[in-house]
Amino acid sequence: MLPKQEVVAMLLAGGQGSRLGVLTRNLAKPAVPFGGKYRIIDFPLSNCVNSGIETVGVLTQYQPLELNEYIGNGQPWDLDSTNAGVHVLPPYQKNKKSDWYKGTANAIFQNIPFIERYDPEYVVVLSGDHIYKMDYSKMINYHKEKDAACTIAVYEVPLEEASRFGILNTNADGSIYEFDEKPKVPKSNQASMGIYVFSWSKLKKYLEEDDENPKSQNDFGKNVLPAMLNAGERMFAYRFEGYWKDVGTIESLWESNMDLLNPNISLDLSDDEWKIYSRNPVMPPHYVAKGAHVQNSLVAEGCNVYGEIDFAVLFAGVYVAPGAVVKDSIVMPGARIEEGARVQYAIVSENSVIGANAVVGERPEEMENKDDWGVAVIGPGCTIPPGTVVEPKAMIDAEEVK
User: Fold this and answer.
1) What is the Cα–Cα distance from 154 to 112, expressed in whole angstroms?
2) Model-level pTM?
3) Where is the signal peptide (predicted)?
């Protein structure tokens, strides 16, 4: 038995992220680059550290290699202590058979032995694909005050979008009396953020019962939470009012990156009181050449900018040639935008090359039919030939341009 930890966090990072298309073909969604110098997983990991949570299990499954390498020993997030720290937890073989994680609840169930080593009072279950800053300690204190078995973080969404989420219906004291997973006709706009605080003794009981049910999908939203509610357990909603975005689609990933350039958005990466930590490449300072034009953009280390960028996010090692224009776009590590190329409303993945005078994406106001507009995506390692036009909504894979 290791030294007791009052709280253990379990970070679900094994999803395939299929809606991100070529961006996650060979990469786990939490490892997708974000914001010029981060990966998506940096946000929940940093939240844990800033909230005083010292033990974090990261449950990986789909395309875990790069994510595992990125997390390493947890040193960038100060999660490398001897008796606590971050632990990567892939599925493993037991009872002479190999079990993939069959659902969110099953992933935690399979790691009960890991949790038990720390004998925690509370377990925080997190998702690895959301962008937000949150003090989990405040939610844990709320959970204690309510003497709850389960507390669910909720975020108010527009009612017309509520059917995409698990929706909570609550009493005046915040207690939950109904939970609807993606209802066709939602009764409220209180959406589950996929962030849970459980009293460990209660959660363990329901995980074991769920595993014994052959009809269960082994999912928190579909099975475990309704089972707890039907049994009359004390369940409460914890309201979150800061910035939060699920970046599970191309559009939401692009929007969240662009939000970093909007002074009216509350996600502040310069806040010294709540830093977002990351593992960074060792590269020289960025260089902006004479005659280049840089406006309202994030430019990471190792970039060389000779052209024009406006409302853009450039990751480490990006090259923008003379005469090239990048607007309203995300350009990921090591990509090159060659002379005269124009990139707008697009995501250009790692180590891609946009050939001279190529055009990627289009401004919506310049289109005859705005319904045809969408973010253009260039996959990792692609080379777009000179003069090529890549239409809005296009998603280009390296195999397509060989």
Assistant:
1) 26
2) 0.93
3) none
